[in-house]
Design brief:
There is one protein chain. The protein is α+β, with helices and mostly antiparallel strands and 56 residues long. It contains three helices and two strands, in the order H-E-E-H-H. It starts with a helix and ends in a 6-residue tail after the last helix.
């Protein structure tokens, strides 16, 4: 089984900016990164669980 089978929909282009396709996985990564930065700025306790390597 190749990696493309379970990740197929995430690897499909969501839109094209010029001639460069942007996939759903890239949009998901951007959104989760933006939420993480927002939580860091707010210093929310939930961020301790999300940050890799964080010691509660």
């Amino acid at each position: 089984m190749s990696v493309h089978v379970p990740l197929g929909p995430l690897l499909d282009p969501a839109f094209h900016l010029g001639s460069v396709p942007t996939t759903w996985a890239e949009l998901l990564g951007f959104a989760t990164g933006a939420v993480n930065v927002w939580l860091v700025v707010r210093q929310n306790i939930i961020n301790c669980v999300i940050r890799p390597g964080a010691v509660p």
